[in-house]
Amino acid sequence: MRARLLIGAVFLASLASHVQAEPRQFTFSWQFEEGDALRPRGGTTRGTPLTLATEPSAAWRAVQEPGLSKFERDRRAILAMAGGYRTSFDFLETVGFTPGFTPSRPYQSWGTEYIYVVDDRGTFIRLQHVMVMFITDRDGKVQGPFVQKHWRQDWSYEDTDLHVFVGRNRWVRHTRTAEEARGRWSQAVFQVDDSPRYESLGEWEHYGTYSAWTSDRTARPLPRRETTVRSDYHILEGINRHTLTPTGWVQEEENLKLVLDEQGQPAADAPYLARELGVARYEHVVDFDFSAGDVYWQRTGGFWRDVRAAWDAVYAERDSFEYLEEVDGQEMFVPLFEHAERLDAGEPYDAAAAAEVIRATFARHLR
Fold first, then answer.
1. Is 161 part of any domain?
2. Which of 55, 69, 106, 338 has the fewest CB atoms within 10 Å around its CB?
3. What pTM value is reported for the model?
4. What is the DSSP letter of 264?
5. How high is the pLDDT of residue 31?
């Protein structure tokens, strides 16, 4: 089990491995920087051959259907993000705001993952990402599948009760008026252990074959790709755009790296260090074996449902809370993933035992 958790930690950090990928392509960069100081960092594994979809998906075609209400077209656009994908992640600092600014190394990574529709109640849709990876080692042998519960996104129509990140490990309730939420959807994003990441209202736009959701400005904790290499800012503040394509979807980010003072307010002299652009592409794949992800979710879904219920109780009972991702050298995901690992190995689900694991973990990491 420990070995498989270590594999999970590799996924969480950067999907890095001992296998060096082929040189990666990028055309939007700092052209005049010398040397390899801005060589992209991130995942370096090499996957197995796969086939990308070339025809528009049925879900994408459903969004184009004439005569739909705006609400129904929005719903279909959200549901169209489900399915199996090859994913790629690119992040690049484009502008610096401080004297002597030096851009940090760009970040690139990849994965293969399946996005499940866990819940669809009309005005609420829950999508769960599960990574299923096959890796080609240096001898050309295929290793895997490696399964990793990934991030989750919840979509709520005309949502007025949001929990937003304000820095220093703290989230607060932010109530929006009915008018502010009218016709809009919130997207709440959660980390691999179902702890909160960010939440924001936004609006879908549809023009013919163009469908995209754009968020309000949103505050987020530093992502793992940043916390592993730096600690000189406190909030990633940005705007997200989710855009459908005929064979997948794209998430674009425009982020500002925000520094807080000791009082938790933006630093007066230099609040922002840099602007960063991010692009995550989700490309439909065909004939890829995601069955290990199906099995994982069938065996562990009840446990993760109970974890979500515990978080729902926190949101209902508290107007603010602090979440400590790491306590005494152990991250929150570890005991939860260990329990899920036993279930994935075939251990019957014991709700009482799971409740104790969840209770102890929350007591350790929530304030």
1. yes
2. 69
3. 0.92
4. S
5. 78
